[in-house]
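Lecture 7, part B: from sequences to assemblies.

Below are the input chains for today's worked example.
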Amino acid sequence: MSPRRVTLADVAKAAGVSRTTASLVLSGRGRELRISQDVEQRVLKAAEELQYRPNIVSVGLRTGTSRTIGFVSDTIATSRLAGDMIKGALEAARDRGFMLFIGETEGDAELESLLIQAMHDRQVDGLILASMFTRTIKVPKAITAVPAVLLNALPKQPTPLPAILPDEVEAGRRAARVLLDAGHRDGIYLIGAGPGLRDVPAESLAAVERLVGIREALGEAGVKVAGARACPDWQPEHGLAATRDLLKTARPRALICFNDRIAMAAYQALDDFGLKVPADVSVVSFDDHPIASWVRPKLTTVALPHYELGRKAMDVLFTEIERDGSDTEEAGQVHRVPMPVRDRESVAPSPIAEFLD
Amino acid sequence: MSPRRVTLADVAKAAGVSRTTASLVLSGRGRELRISQDVEQRVLKAAEELQYRPNIVSVGLRTGTSRTIGFVSDTIATSRLAGDMIKGALEAARDRGFMLFIGETEGDAELESLLIQAMHDRQVDGLILASMFTRTIKVPKAITAVPAVLLNALPKQPTPLPAILPDEVEAGRRAARVLLDAGHRDGIYLIGAGPGLRDVPAESLAAVERLVGIREALGEAGVKVAGARACPDWQPEHGLAATRDLLKTARPRALICFNDRIAMAAYQALDDFGLKVPADVSVVSFDDHPIASWVRPKLTTVALPHYELGRKAMDVLFTEIERDGSDTEEAGQVHRVPMPVRDRESVAPSPIAEFLD
DNA sequence: GTTCGTTGCTAAATCGGGTTAGCAGGCCGC
DNA sequence: GCGGCCTGCTAACCCGATTTAGCAACGAAC
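Predicted structure of the full complex, as structure tokens:
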């Protein structure tokens, strides 16, 4: 099948020199070590003609590196979230000539440990431990051997590992401000979590933080949440039930849905009750899932910056790799990536606001 | 940072034997080569206590392998499609103790070539060349050095590479049969492609094949397509425009939408015209995108088996690796993975059929 | 004419495993 | 008392690139 790879020895032979000389020339140290112009040219020509490429595995054996990063996540298949995150990490790695190993643990700690071992066996230079929804995770012992960062997750116990997360609190503030800026003061309801900070889906860090941000921004404006319906899980069916339940007893002016799937379900429930978005009810949401721009009216939502999260994780990982265990000043730092508002069509000025104009 | 990996030499020293002996015991060839029980136990104990794991990089250097497969795709971020495909490939690889390199080319031939080179430099044992939508691709020259398969793509020129694709023709037949089985004979329209085999989005192999299957199944039942609206691209906005255009002049009984995004847009257009799904119009579609079970009524659709495609690609790749350039009987074989119908709520019996009951 | 310095290159070791060939010692047979 | 065989282990080489230490040849200086 393959006609055997061209090795340094082949180049050396073709140029009529030793492997050492060929290596020196090709690593640019020829000048420094007084290799003659003539020999240098012969080696370069031979390497070019034979299309020589150094075998990274061999270099890896000597140096203990592999120019490879391991990306370990709990699930990669759920939504395009993972795809964009991996894409960001991938491009940041490629910029530095690194490749990416992908692994999936399905939340199984043993599998995770095995996977990290398998990556160590291949001498990865660093690890990204990613979670597909923002949460706290138990950092596996196995990762100590190599620089690592947490992506979309916080450590359960204190660790020196940096963490990269979306700025969910600010996102909550921004969602609230979208409504405030449109003049809404009354009839603002939450779907998915709240009103209290304990009324959130299990393990969902994002829920708590978004809620904190929402309440903070509304509070600063002297506005109260009119009510809320928490969901055990942020799936459309729960969103549908929650919104219907709300509409039985209340006439909201605006909904803050905790993600786009819930917002989509809320659209359906509002339609059932003959309410129009945004004329009767404004809707703002989180995530910027692709459906947010497929539904009508298009959904105003605070985007999860998946791509940027992936890139940022890789950037932070590389600074970890470069400082290589020296001062631990920045150890355990938490990096927050801003979540931008995607202004679309689901928010209308409050009638009161128009009146005030 | 890391306290240096435990090597075979460490184990040998701890057991008081040579590296050779340790290697023989640990590779299970101790019996065969008459290593005493006593020594065998000492080595195993030392390996256990030191938590010895062989360095795969080293083995790779000798054997030219890496227990690693390269997964090269044009885009990994589009929809969850890619995620599930990678997941399938990943699990199939993991079953065999292999890891997966991920790479993305963005459709850039030069990037693709560089990426394949980079994977060769790391001695991958095989390559999967994946496309995120079914199409024909130019097979890069660079892949010749190692076994490879095409995933969700057909080669433009004839190559000995196997290809793994969804069975789109049969999917077309199945979609049509869903309607036929419900008694529909008239008023069946297509949204997204058709009526002619040239009325398809550019480069979309899936469109042609689905269309072939649809026409075949309908033809066998003596049923004619009442009409069709092709779209330049299968995005919701095009689907919306196409369906609205159709509804201006026709009153369909059933729609075959060429993917779920278009079906979702068709729902919206039908709603605009006061038509109910499925009471007035039955809708059947392709892909089984997550939204198919989020919309109401839930969409009956013929699923793209992403996960199975990924698994199958890896399985075929491993048979390629194992036969290792021997007889080329199966060279260039095309494997079709069945697309299952997801029966949900968007198809109702034809009024005529009920009458016949 | 010896020593020193410089130029221009190469032998050999290294990384961590696997593999081949072979060695030392004991026992048997003749 | 020597050859042959078996047992139980190990030395040494290989993979491909890098790096350290050092060698050969020549000219210059004293």
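Note for the exam: The mean pLDDT of chain B is 91. Keep this in mind when comparing with the next example.
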